[in-house]
UniProtKB/TrEMBL annotation:
This is Trehalose-6-phosphate synthase. GO terms for biological process: trehalose biosynthetic process. GO terms for molecular function: alpha,alpha-trehalose-phosphate synthase (UDP-forming) activity. InterPro entries: Glyco_trans_20.
Length: 463
């Protein structure tokens, strides 16, 4: 049976514990032969060309050190100051330094050179996310003939935003070197197809570039999910229950409104606080009866736009406190730190409302995990941005336009007033959708499409 090789910038055990990518893929490798390949987290002056294979909690992980300078251009530069804002349609927040592309390319070449000697001819290679778009091209240049798939965890941009990215044509040519490109949502596949069918290559110096041939690359939507049953168990675990008791003591009878997001401008956090402010302003009866808890672990904080988002949020939370707090009541708590999955599961279970209101998001696994963690006898309500990939799946959430803070405030009010019967009905439908889109099937479907007949273990009873 072919091995699976997963490649991503971060490897498991490194980086923020709450990352949906790590949680989802750890499971794939725990059930089959293969290894995970990625950056070691170490920056050095003179990186070698070899990866170190290590056993991390039973997973084989091959890790590579990167050169300090290249890493800056590759990660904070091209990946997170150009690709991330453009793919999230925030060209106003992009910083375009075109030389970053060279560092991005060099790191992808380095990944390919270190990965190539570890590959067997029939290994299936599954590359993850925007940091590594050129990897298949680089591997193929070194002679790899393996089946190679790419999965984009973030949204695919509209054509105009794509054209604003330096070297976008090369990046699209790179995507055409994969056998399969998976996206989160139908809207992403539509945007990709729009580009592929109406390519308008740039004409520098009068040279019309050759149209890109996508005929050997399959493109489809594979919406990622979570493991809702595992989240349900976690939410009833002693660690989660401890968090529930702790919060209940602090909240008394107040209803908890919860947000959990990386501190990222794509998550719509200032708009969310503004919607909460409007809720309190428009509904005096709710003051002293509700409490917003926003958990926002810091992210990519060497990048100016992230620091600014953090400052804006500090100011807005302070503003709402000043406007509504009383000596014995605070309208909100804002914590800039990461919590483990058990504590989060406890918070999700206790929350009457989850506010998942990104301005644009690939999928958003917080929505999935919140649903999994609910008490079926007394479930909370999901207020969900229509611009999250999750909105294509969770039709019975209260869908909102996160830019319209009046609408979000009104959805919050409706969620808080929703009778138990309606909450139960909506939750049942959301849970069915979360179960249908679970992460195990996501991985099996992708691998099966990439290399038919290889996704299932011998003796597996799955059909
Ligand atoms: C998003 C991306 C992931 C990334 C994660 C955390 O979910 O799709 O690829 O790992 O954010 O961001 P970071 O920059 O800390 O890896």
């Amino acid at each position: 049976m072919s091995r699976i090789v997963i490649v991503s910038n971060r490897t498991p055990g490194k980086g923020p514990a709450a990352g949906g990518l790590a949680v989802a893929l750890r499971k794939v490798l725990s059930e089959r032969d293969g290894f995970w390949f990625g950056w070691s987290g170490k920056l050095v002056d003179q990186p070698g060309n070899e990866a170190r294979m290590e056993d991390i909690d039973g997973l084989q992980v091959a890790q590579l050190d990167l050169a300090r300078e290249d890493h800056h251009a590759y990660y904070a530069g091209f990946s997170n100051s150009i690709l991330w804002p453009s793919f999230h349609l925030r060209l106003d927040l992009a910083t375009i330094e075109s030389h970053w592309y060279e560092g991005y390319r060099r790191v992808n070449q380095q990944f390919a050179r270190a990965l190539m000697p570890l590959l067997k001819p029939d290994d299936i290679v599954w590359v993850h996310d925007y940091h590594l778009i050129p990897l298949a091209s680089e591997l193929r240049q070194l002679g790899a003939r393996n089946r190679i798939g790419f999965y984009l965890h973030i949204p695919f941009p509209t054509a105009d935003a794509l054209y604003a990215i330096p070297h976008h044509e090369e990046l699209m040519r790179d995507l055409a070197r994969y056998d399969l490109v998976g996206m989160q949502a139908k809207r992403d596949v539509a945007a990709f197809t729009e580009f592929a069918e109406h390519q308008a290559p740039s004409t520098f110096g009068g040279h019309q570039a050759q149209p890109i041939d996508f005929s050997r690359t399959e493109i489809d939507a594979f919406p990622i999910g979570s493991d809702p049953a595992a989240f349900a168990r976690l939410a009833a675990s002693p660690a989660a229950t401890k968090m529930v008791h702790r919060m209940k003591r602090a909240l008394g009878d107040q209803c908890l409104i919860l947000g959990v997001d990386r501190l990222d401008y794509s998550k719509g956090l200032p708009q969310r606080v503004e919607a909460y402010e409007k809720l309190l302003a428009n509904n005096a009866r709710l003051r002293r009866n509700v409490h917003l808890l926003q958990v926002a672990p810091p992210s990519r904080d060497t990048i100016k736009e992230y620091q600014e988002t953090s400052d804006t949020l500090d100011a807005m939370c302070g503003h709402v406190m000043g406007r509504f707090a009383e000596p014995d009541w605070q309208p909100l708590t804002y914590v800039k730190r990461a919590y483990g999955q058990p504590s989060l599961a406890g918070l999700y279970r206790l929350a009457r409302v989850a506010l998942v209101t990104p301005l644009r998001d690939g999928m958003n696994l917080v929505a999935h995990e919140f649903i999994g963690a609910q008490d079926p006898a007394n479930p909370g309500v999901l207020v969900l941005s229509r611009f999250a990939g999750a909105a294509e799946i969770f039709h019975d959430a209260l869908l909102v336009n996160p830019f319209d803070t009046d609408e979000t405030a009104e959805a919050l009010r409706i969620a808080l007033d929703m009778p138990l019967e309606e909450r139960k009905q909506r939750w049942r439908s959301l849970m069915d959708a979360a179960e249908e889109h679970n992460v195990d099937d996501w991985a099996i479907n992708f691998i099966e499409r990439l290399a038919p007949g290889t996704a299932r273990k011998a003796g597996s009873t799955r059909d």
